[in-house]
Amino acid sequence: MDLTLFIIGVATVAAAIAAMSLRNLIHCVLALAVCFLGVAILFLRLGAEFVGFAQILVYIGAVAILIVFAILLTRSGGEEPKPFFNSQWWYGLAIAVAVFGCLSFAILGGKSIQPQSITGNSTTVKQIGTELMTTYVLPLEVMGILLTAAMLGAVVIAWQKGERK
C-alpha cells in the first residue's frame, strides 16, 4: 500500500468524523470541505482526473460554499448549545457496528475481482471539456442560471426574515 494514499485516507476519514461531531456549524462545513478535498485527491492519485476535478469544482467549489452562505445568511443569534448525546445514542452505535460488521464480512469474504485490461480509446478531460463547451453548452448555461437563481432566492428569503425581526 502506498503511504501517501494511506495518509490521505486517514485524513479524509478524520475530517468526516470531525464534520459529524463538531458543535459549530461553520467548523462542520470546513471539515466537510476537507473531507471532499481528500476524496478528490484520492481520485486524482488513482488516475480518475475528471472525477477528481469535478469533485473539487462541484463539491468544494459549490456545495461547501453554498452551505457556508446558507448558514451565514439564515443563522439566528444566540441559540443555546444542545447536548451532544441524547438518550438513544446506543441504538445508533449498535446499528453502525452491525452495518460495519456486515460490510466487512461481505468485503473480506468475497472473491477478488481481477482487473481487466481496458481496450479502446479512453476519454480525456480535454475531450469532455470540448463536448461540454460545444455540444452541451445550452444545458450547462441553463444549469448555471438555475443555480444563480436559487442563490438569489436564498438571499432574498434570508433578507426578508432579517427585516421581520
Question: What are the key terms here?
Answer:
single chain, 165 residues
SSE inventory with pairings:
Elements: H1 3-21, H2 25-45, H3 49-74, H4 89-109, H5 125-134, H6 137-164
Helix pairs in contact: 1-2, 2-3, 3-6
Characterise this structure.
The protein has 165 residues and is an all-alpha fold. Helix content is 76%, strand content 0%. The mean pLDDT is 82. The longest helix is centred in the last third of the chain and has 28 residues, at 137-164.
What is this entry, summarized?
The protein is mainly α. It has 6 helices and no strands. The model has no long low-confidence stretch (mean pLDDT about 80).
* Tally of helical segments: 6
What is the strand content?
under 5%
Radius of gyration: 21 Å
| Helicity level | over 70%
> What is the terminal-to-terminal distance?
57 Å
What characterizes the major β-sheet?
none
Order of helices and strands: HHHHHH
Mean pLDDT: 82
Instruction: List low-confidence stretches.
Output: none
Which structural class is indicated by helix and strand composition? mainly alpha
Give the strand tally: 0
Shape: flat
Multimeric status of the protein: single chain
